[in-house]
Write a structure and sequence with these properties.
This is Heme-binding protein. It comes from Streptomyces corchorusii. It holds the Pfam family HbpS-like. The protein has one domain: Haem-degrading domain (Beta-Lactamase, 2-Layer Sandwich). It is about 35% helix and about 20% strand. It contains 3 helices and 4 strands. A 4-stranded antiparallel sheet has the order 2-1-4-3. A hairpin with a 2-residue loop joins β3 and β4.
Length: about 140
């Protein structure tokens, strides 16, 4: 059996993700915090805007962690955690509580999960747009 190595998410990739999300947020007049995790859930890059709500740093980290753990954009998971949803009873006793608010997006390379980005500080749809724009910059 042949396996193909997938390049991991690098510090340079993480810095590009942060810069792109920050630039998109600034263009929209929004102050955000941005977190980038590698495939193992380790912090690769983080930026908190001092003008953002203080909790935005923790929010961006939890969004990235949720996107990484479930390998899905957090925007796609909101309905799943509502009563009657697929994840309504999903335990949150993981290393870090999950956060089902738009703004967390997994990062894939060659079809494999290599990390995640989380953006917090704007409205959920804005955060999702900033994170998505950042991931598209890696392509």
């Amino acid at each position: 059996m042949t396996t193909t190595a997938v390049a991991p998410l690098t510090i340079e990739d993480a810095e590009l993700l942060v810069a792109t999300a920050r630039r998109a947020a600034e263009d929209a007049g929004v102050a955000v915090s941005v977190t980038v995790l590698d495939a193992g859930g380790h912090l690769l890059a983080f930026r908190r805007d001092d003008r953002a709500v203080l909790i935005s740093g923790e929010t961006s980290t939890r969004k990235a962690y949720t996107a990484l753990q479930l390998n899905a954009p957090t925007a796609d998971l909101v309905d799943a955690v509502q009563p009657g949803g697929l994840f309504h009873t999903l335990p949150t006793a993981l290393d870090r509580p999950l956060l089902f608010i738009a703004g967390g997006v997994p990062v894939h390379r060659d079809g494999r999960l290599v990390g995640a980005i989380g953006v917090g500080g704007g409205a959920p749809d804005q955060d999702h747009g900033f994170a998505t724009a950042a991931v598209q910059a890696l392509v």
